[in-house]
Amino acid sequence: MKVLHTSDWHLGRAFHRVSMLGAQAEFIGHLVTTVREHDVDAVVVSGDVYDRAVPPLAAVELFDDALHRLADLGVPTVMISGNHDSARRLGVGAGLIGRAGIHLCTDPSAAGMPVILADEHGDVAFYGLPYLEPALVKDEFGVEKPGHEAVLAAAMDRVRADLATRAPGTRSVVLAHAFVTGGEASDSERDITVGGVASVPAAVFDGVDYVALGHLHGCQTLTERVRYSGSPLAYSFSETAHRKSMWLVDLDADGSVAAERVDCPVPRPLARIRGRLEELLADPALAPHEAAWVEATLTDPVRPADPMARLTERFPHTLSLVFDPERAADEPEVSYARRLADRSDQQIAEDFVAHVRGAGPDADEQAVLRDAFDAVRADQAVREVAR
After folding, report:
1. Could you give the C-alpha distances from 221 to 36, 71, 180, in angstroms and in order?
2. From CA 175, how far away is CA 179, in angstroms rounded?
3. Which tens digits make up the pLDDT trace of 20-36?
4. pLDDT digits (tens, 9 = 90+) for 253-278
5. Residue among 170, 174, 173, 129 nearest 152 (CA)
6. How far is residue 219's CA from residue 224's CA, in Å, rounded to a whole number?
7. Which residue of 59, 79, 129, 275 sits 20 to 30 Å from the alpha carbon of 178, by its own alpha carbon?
8. Can you tell me the distance from the alpha carbon of 38 to that of 146, in angstroms, rounded to the nearest whole number?
9. pTM of the predicted structure, to 2 decimals
10. How far apart are CA 263 and CA 284, in angstroms?
C-alpha cells in the first residue's frame, strides 16, 4: 500500500505578515497531483490542519476545497487534529464526511478504533491519535499524573489491544501529533511542555508498522518506522535550511517500510544574512538572496539610520530586521541580570526607550513613566490589602 504522509498545513497562517494562502492553495494542488501521479492508496494528515482553533474564513474555504478534491480522487484520507486545531470544530460532520472517504479522527476516546483500508495483501489499520493535551485527557486514559508520555502510552495500549484482535498479518499505521525524543524543533512550533517535559520516547510507538508524526516542522526520520513529514511550507526563518517535502511510504505485504521524499513547491526561498549594513548592501556574494524573503542581522556597533529602507532597496523582500552589535575584543560580556542590578524600574524603562529610539525620554516622558509606575505600585498595594 502506498501511503502519502503529510502534516502541519497550518492553513490561515502568515509568514511575517505575508499571507500564505496562495502558497497553501498551490500546495493542495501539488498534493492532489502527487496522489494521482504516484497512484497513492491512502493519504494521512498528522495534525495542525489549521493554524488556530478559530481559523479565518479563507482558510476554511481552502480546507473545504481540499476535502472535495481529495474525495473526488477516490483515495481514502485519514486526518487527525493537532495542538493548533480545535478538535471539536475540525471533527464536525466527521461521520458524514467519512462516507466520502475522508476520515477525521479528532476524538481521543476513539484511539483504539481504526480506519480499516485494504489492498491486495489484506487489511491495513489506520489509528488516528489526535493531539492529546494531558490535563484534558488524563481521565479518559486513566493516568494519575498527566504528562505526554503517560497519555500517549495509554493510547498506544489501546492501539495494540485492538490490533491483537485483528486477523494475522494485519498491517498498522499510527497517526500522532507529538514531540518525540530525537526530533529537531524550530521556532515555528507552539510549546507543548507539561511539567517541564515536552518529548516522549519513540519506544512508546513500538508494535506498529509505521508512525506518521506531526508537530515538528522539519522532515525527519527518527527510525525507519517513525517519521515526521514536516510542514509543507516554511513558517519562520529558523526553517531556512529545511527541505519541504512529504513522505511517500510503501508498506509491503509483510509490513516492511520503504519511504521516499516528494518535494513541495517553494513560493520564495528564505535567506538569513548577517553583517554591517554597508557590507550587506555591497557584498556581491549576496546577489542570489535579492529575490528571497530575508532576515537581516545587523552587527554595526551603532545602529545605522533607516536600516530597513536601505536594505529593501537591494533586498525588496526583507521581512525581519535584527540588531546584534559587535563588541570590542576587550569589552567584557555582561549578563542581562548584571546590567539590571541596582537599577530602578524607572531607569530600566528609560534605558529601553533609549535603546529602541536612539534617544532617552525627555522630562515630560519621564513624568509619564513615573506616573505609570506609581499607579502600578498603588494597585499592587490595594491587592495586597485585599488578600
Report:
1. 25, 29, 11
2. 13
3. 999 999 999 999 999 99
4. 999 999 999 999 999 999 999 999 99
5. 129
6. 13
7. 59
8. 42
9. 0.83
10. 30
